What does this fold into?
Amino acid sequence: MRVAIYGAGVSGLACAFELERLGFAGEIHLFEEKHGVGVGNLWIEFISELFNRPVVDMFAYLGQHHNLYLSPLHTIEGSFNFGPTKMAKYDGYVGHTVARGNHELSIEKQIFKLVRSPVHFNSQYTLKELQSEYDIVILASGNLHDVPSEIGVRVDRYVHFYHAIVEGEFDPKRVKMWLNHHYGPQGYAYLIPESEKLAMISLTTPVQEFQLVKGWNRLINEVWGDKIKIRNLHEVRNAPLGEPMVRQYKNLFLIGNAGGAILPAMGFGLFRAILSGLLAADAIVNNKDYEALLVKHKKEYQWSLALRNMLEMLDNEQFDQVVDGMDSLMGRYMLNAGSVNFLRVAGRLLATFTRQTKKSFPVTGTLLEFEGRTVEENQHR
It folds into this structure.
């Protein structure tokens, strides 16, 4: 049996790793259109313990259950959370930061070093060509746009965001988040450190009509002023947030972002992307029902989407109340590592009552065009 993996990102590489680990008796080939693993922009991601409960430590979990041993950049020991006028500081373990893309310790590059199967870079193969030549094809491109039209997707948001790598002075063990409609309506901003001298700042909103450059400038000027220098700044429009109608279609398995492996509430998806690749490998080697393996993850998506729906309905005064709540005794208890997953409980209740009608619509043809551009590049600094 021959397996082709379309995309050598985290989910595709994780799938190849797990196929090898489980003793898959056949050929495994990965096809990547870029010239290497992890090329392109540097991205810093936060792995939140709060959103992954009952898993407290993603890295311990992957090592213990799958012999997939990876390393984070930092263990995060606290957070600052800002509303328009309120601030809550939390001291305690909240997760890890990881590097993505063009970084020597990026998760993609770490998994790549563990995979023995060949990766064909600069690939010109189409998904249909691979389906005709291989017994099983894994779609791991990281993009809902690549889902075949006969499957269709449901888009729950088109997200617009800015993200920048900046130089300054940062605490590498603390993350920061802002809830403020003046910066990005119905969205949020956050800072994730890479080191004491480098960090990523991101601002996102689903409101496509909003001039995000104005919100971005307001955020930078009000929070940092001239205390940071932008190394590079990127803008993305029409990034779809949604799910395919099915995750397995004939000989095609969908994993990663193409398989809806993300938590919509805050847009975090790395852990889910890796898990989807591992589960697809399990289904292939052990002849299991892939859709059945994903039932829990599909429910998690819906519950997380319900939380995002609620977040988008809050005004700035209510954002301040949320931040104040984080600083209360109950708020600190909810944030404590290993506590009950209150977000899951709340999301489940909200999903039951709202039935997920807000802004969700099926797309059976072409999605809106995905746009990405570099706004500012100052690599000489």
